[in-house]
Structures are given as C-alpha cells and as structure tokens.
Amino acid sequence: MDLSLSSFARSSIPPPLKSCNLTSLSNFPNYSFKSRNFSLTPLISRQNRRIRAQYSCNSGSGGGGGGDDDGFVVDEVPHLTNFLPDLPSYPNPLQQNLAYTIVKKNFVSPEDVVAQKIVVQKGSPRGVHFRRAGPREKVYFKSEEVRACIVTCGGLCPGINTVIREIVCGLNYMYGVHDILGIEGGYRGFYSKNTIQLTPKVVNDIHKRGGTFLRTSRGGHDTDKIVDNIQDRGINQVYIIGGDGTQKGAALIYKEVEKRGLQVAVAGIPKTIDNDIAVIDKSFGFDTAVEEAQRAINAAHVEVESVENGVGIVKLMGRYSGFIAMFATLASRDVDCCLIPESPFYLEGQGGLFEFIEQRLKENGHVVIVLAEGAGQEYVAQSMHAVSEKDASGNRLLLDVGLWLSQKIKDHFTKVQKMAVNMKYIDPTYMIRAIPSNASDNIYCTLLAHSAVHGAMAGYTGFTIGPVSSRHAYIPIDRVTETTKTIKLTDRMWARLLSSTNQPSFLKGSPVMQERVDKETIEMIDNMKITSI
Ligand SMILES: Nc1ncnc2c1ncn2[C@@H]1O[C@H](COP(=O)(O)OP(=O)(O)OP(=O)(O)O)[C@@H](O)[C@H]1O
Ligand SMILES: O=P(O)(O)OC[C@H]1O[C@](O)(CO)[C@@H](O)[C@@H]1O
Ligand SMILES: [Mg+2]
C-alpha cells in the first residue's frame, strides 16, 4: 500500500501525525493512533496542493494532544500519478546499489516532512512543511526507459557545472540511467539547437571550471515549442537550472506537460548569485561569491589605507536584494558602509552619506563603501535622465550606481568641502560570478543534484529542490516564484551589520525609508543609537 503523502493528498486522507496522541480512528482503519477522543478534518486549499490537516484532540483535562488545532500544513508537490493514475511503480534500483545497501535507513520515509519554521513558540501552530528530499522506496520510471535532459538559463553563478555533473553522475551511478541530453544555450536551445549526449566521462572535469558547460541565455522561453520538443525527442525527465525567471518558465513547462498528459517529470534547481529565491535557506554559489568578494574589498582597503583621504567603493551584484553586499561586509570588517537596494540612502545633510564619509576620513583617513548594484538606482536614473531598458528576459537593465556615486563623492568633497579625495572604484561583479564553486558549495551542489534525481525518479514533478531549515526539501515551484527574497531591515541580520559598521541607518530624513519601516521601528533604532555617527 502506498503510504506516501501524495497518496494521502489524492485520497484526502490526512497523514498520520505522530505528535498527536490518539488511540484509534475508526474512519481510517489502516492507521493506528494513540489517544482517546479524536476528530480530524482535512482542509484542502491552494488548488488542492496545500494539505492542511486540522486535528482536534479532545483529550479532556490536558490529555497531551496538540490543542484544538495544531495547524499542521504540508505544502504538497505534484506527482505524476495526479494526472496519470495508472502509472506503474517499481522497486528503487538503489536497493541493489552497494553504496546504499550499508546505509541504515535506505529510503526517506513518506511521512518525513521538513518544517519551514524551526523557531516556534509553545502553543503556536505547527505551520508549513515541505516533503523531505531523498530516495523513495518506489520509482515511477524504469531506468532503461529514462531519457533525461538538462538545461541552464539566466545569469552565471559558481557551481552550475557541479550541478550538471552530479545530475549526470547521479542518474548513471545511482539509477543506471545512461540516456542524458544536454540542451545548449538556455530555453531557446530546446527548439533551435541540437542536443549533446552527456556521460560521466564527458562531464568528469567540468566542476573545476566556472560558467556553464551547457551555456546559457536570457529570453526565448516558448512553452509550446519547448514541450513539443520534449515530446518529439521522447524526453521524460527535465532538469532545469536557473533563477526566478527560469523557475517561472519551468512551472509553465510542467503545467503544459500535465495538460498534455505526458509522463515527464519536471525538476527545477534554483540558481541565483543574488540569493533572492524565496523559501530556500541559501542558493548555491552564494558562499563562493561572498568569499571572492573579500578579495575586492581587501584590495580597496589596501589602496585607500595607503593614500590620503582614500575613498574605496566596491560594487557587488544584487539586483533587488543586497545579500552579497551584506554578507561580504559582515565577513570583511574593513567596510565602513554597506548600501543595498532594500535600504534607500541619501547623500546630503544630517545623517546623510557625505556627512558620514567626512567623519570617517577625519577619524581614520580612509573609508570603504560596499555597494550592491541595485542600490540607489532611482538617483542614478534621475541624474542621467536614463530611459529604462530591459534585457531579453524582461529584467530592467541597471545603471552603474558605482560610477555615479564615485563622481558624486568626488564633486562634493572637491567643490563643497574643498578637500581632495583619492577615489578607488572597483567593480568585480562578473569576476565574482564567473569562478568555480568552493568546497562547501560543491557539496551543496551535489546534494541538490542528487535530490533532484531522487525526486524525478520517484515521480514528483513541478518541484524545486533546496534546503529549508537546513534540510533538503521538495518545494512546489510556484512557492519559490511568488515572492523575491530580500533583506528585511527589521531583521536581526541587518541590525548586526549596522552595529558592526556603525553606519547611518538613513531612517531619519528619508521619506522612502519612513514609508517602508514603521514608526515604532524608527524610534526603536533611534533609541539604540545605531544611527549615531
Ligand atoms: N515569467 C516567465 N515565464 C516564462 N519564462 C520566463 C519568465 N521569466 C523569465 N523566463 C525565462 O527564463 C529564462 C531565464 O530568465 P532570467 O533571464 O530572468 O534569469 P533568471 O532565471 O531569473 O536567473 P538570474 O536572474 O539569476 O540570472 C529566460 O529564458 C526567460 O525567457
Ligand atoms: O549581465 P547579465 O549576464 O545579464 O547579468 C547581470 C545580472 O545577473 C545577476 O547576476 C543575476 O543573475 C544580477 O545580479 C545581475 O544584475
Ligand atoms: Mg532573475
């Protein structure tokens, strides 16, 4: 009997919850629970995807249940059997795999889920959970019948090649799948290019190189043409590596595949140097990027320390989210000020950037500023009277805030303050993105790739893989695309940064900031004197 959560979802029978003390449940004779009076109501929402099992444990005087509603929610990933109910399953070939036979618990239990929030309060709802990633006892593909393909889309990021390599090797070595195609040059490669055959030998060394072995592109997503091509080529597993835009494209592919009733598993592997993908803890390549950024910050620091009134500016990537800038700043300790898209800043007057620079120059003789590329875009656009341009995927092309800020600082100090500054502007953005992944990212990429392979073989589809609260989980694609992850100015991490650099918070005097952050927070930060300069 299939005890997987998807089978519960399909049959509207909620999963057995070990946390509720139940004795028996006559409605569900196949499951035994330990408790007395119990009633149970499954609620299905979010297009039948999110399964909410509401448990009422009426156990009298504090009988140890989870309260009236313990708010346990599973954010369900689609399964091929949702639209192909007669699909046969097979024993997982990993049962015969030498490496896996010695593992104590070979397969992930179907009931294992990962909690999105791990910090909880007594009595609070148990919250959203995702299906835990890993190999399942049953698979829905015969290895010799699998024809997989891999595509990479969007910008570069350290580690893409490791993910490609590990999908190929994982499919080969764990599942005996030998037919794997590389789609070249992003989504448009499906319908405009020949494929390349990928074998462990072909991909053996690629993790040592930056970039993507399969090449990439922006734009060119045509769902019908892509799915026609998948169908024509007899592809039944699609591995799609890319950022938010790519994952939106993957969701459309999955929906079209479902509409056509094809036995095709669609697996998304989130990639973004900006670390702006929602739900997952961190994206691969991010650590490598932060580490590489240290070299640029260090260079800026060495330069400005060696001259009089040295002002170093380092521009890092981060279109809408300043994660690289924030973490690189926190890691370095040589940075005086970090500017990110989420926190509007201003230059002139009390509490402004110029005042802060002047003070640091007087105190230390130099200042280092780390700037995310998406910061201050509104000012640059105003001063350059620039027309907003877009790339092939529809992303707004950013103006060079680093050049703009360098000029503004030079002008201010020379003309207004009559004080010459020694400006050193470093733009290492592409250098940080184009390198191979470091050791820990390599391990992370391996886990992602293997989890994607296990998920597709187990018949899941329309899913993205990633760590949630430090455990790898299968997440419905639209959960990761519905919002962009940004730095919360009211979170403790940003407070850590402010108290480490002692930079202005720009809360006072910035109408935009006052709109974003509530009055109470402004007062609280003021009282904490983080803004004091
Ligand atoms: N809303 C969408 N629907 C379908 N396809 C999309 C959508 N947005 C983007 N795409 C496609 O996804 C691919 C990559 O998108 P994009 O260039 O925005 O990069 P990305 O995946 O967001 O990665 P990153 O921003 O990290 O570089 C492109 O081929 C683009 O056509
Ligand atoms: O110049 P490209 O390749 O379009 O990429 C630039 C953009 O890609 C990103 O690195 C996201 O992948 C952004 O930070 C950056 O703005
Ligand atoms: Mg994107």
From TrEMBL:
<keyword id="KW-0479">Metal-binding</keyword>
<feature type="active site" description="Proton acceptor">
    <location>
        <position position="274"/>
    </location>
</feature>
<dbReference type="GO" id="GO:0005737">
    <property type="term" value="C:cytoplasm"/>
</dbReference>
<feature type="binding site">
    <location>
        <begin position="218"/>
        <end position="219"/>
    </location>
    <ligand>
        <name>ATP</name>
    </ligand>
</feature>
<comment type="subunit">
    <text>Homotetramer.</text>
</comment>
<comment type="similarity">
    <text>Belongs to the phosphofructokinase type A (PFKA) family. PPi-dependent PFK group II subfamily. Atypical ATP-dependent clade 'X' sub-subfamily.</text>
</comment>
<keyword id="KW-0067">ATP-binding</keyword>
<dbReference type="InterPro" id="IPR012004">
    <property type="entry name" value="PyroP-dep_PFK_TP0108"/>
</dbReference>
<dbReference type="InterPro" id="IPR035966">
    <property type="entry name" value="PKF_sf"/>
</dbReference>
<feature type="site" description="Important for substrate specificity; cannot use PPi as phosphoryl donor">
    <location>
        <position position="245"/>
    </location>
</feature>
<keyword id="KW-0460">Magnesium</keyword>
<keyword id="KW-0963">Cytoplasm</keyword>
<comment type="function">
    <text>Catalyzes the phosphorylation of D-fructose 6-phosphate to fructose 1,6-bisphosphate by ATP, the first committing step of glycolysis.</text>
</comment>
<dbReference type="GO" id="GO:0006002">
    <property type="term" value="P:fructose 6-phosphate metabolic process"/>
</dbReference>
<dbReference type="GO" id="GO:0046872">
    <property type="term" value="F:metal ion binding"/>
</dbReference>
<dbReference type="InterPro" id="IPR050929">
    <property type="entry name" value="PFKA"/>
</dbReference>
<feature type="binding site">
    <location>
        <begin position="317"/>
        <end position="319"/>
    </location>
    <ligand>
        <name>substrate</name>
    </ligand>
</feature>
<feature type="binding site">
    <location>
        <position position="155"/>
    </location>
    <ligand>
        <name>ATP</name>
    </ligand>
</feature>
<protein>
    <recommendedName>
        <fullName>ATP-dependent 6-phosphofructokinase</fullName>
        <ecNumber>2.7.1.11</ecNumber>
    </recommendedName>
</protein>
<dbReference type="GO" id="GO:0005524">
    <property type="term" value="F:ATP binding"/>
</dbReference>
<keyword id="KW-0418">Kinase</keyword>
<dbReference type="Pfam" id="PF00365">
    <property type="entry name" value="PFK"/>
</dbReference>
<dbReference type="GO" id="GO:0003872">
    <property type="term" value="F:6-phosphofructokinase activity"/>
</dbReference>
<feature type="binding site">
    <location>
        <position position="244"/>
    </location>
    <ligand>
        <name>Mg(2+)</name>
    </ligand>
</feature>
<feature type="binding site">
    <location>
        <begin position="430"/>
        <end position="433"/>
    </location>
    <ligand>
        <name>substrate</name>
    </ligand>
</feature>
<feature type="binding site">
    <location>
        <begin position="243"/>
        <end position="246"/>
    </location>
    <ligand>
        <name>ATP</name>
    </ligand>
</feature>
<keyword id="KW-0324">Glycolysis</keyword>
<dbReference type="InterPro" id="IPR000023">
    <property type="entry name" value="Phosphofructokinase_dom"/>
</dbReference>
<dbReference type="InterPro" id="IPR022953">
    <property type="entry name" value="ATP_PFK"/>
</dbReference>
<keyword id="KW-0808">Transferase</keyword>
<keyword id="KW-0547">Nucleotide-binding</keyword>
<feature type="binding site">
    <location>
        <position position="373"/>
    </location>
    <ligand>
        <name>substrate</name>
    </ligand>
</feature>
<keyword id="KW-0021">Allosteric enzyme</keyword>
<comment type="pathway">
    <text>Carbohydrate degradation; glycolysis; D-glyceraldehyde 3-phosphate and glycerone phosphate from D-glucose: step 3/4.</text>
</comment>
<dbReference type="GO" id="GO:0005829">
    <property type="term" value="C:cytosol"/>
</dbReference>
<feature type="binding site">
    <location>
        <begin position="272"/>
        <end position="274"/>
    </location>
    <ligand>
        <name>substrate</name>
    </ligand>
</feature>
<feature type="domain" description="Phosphofructokinase">
    <location>
        <begin position="148"/>
        <end position="454"/>
    </location>
</feature>
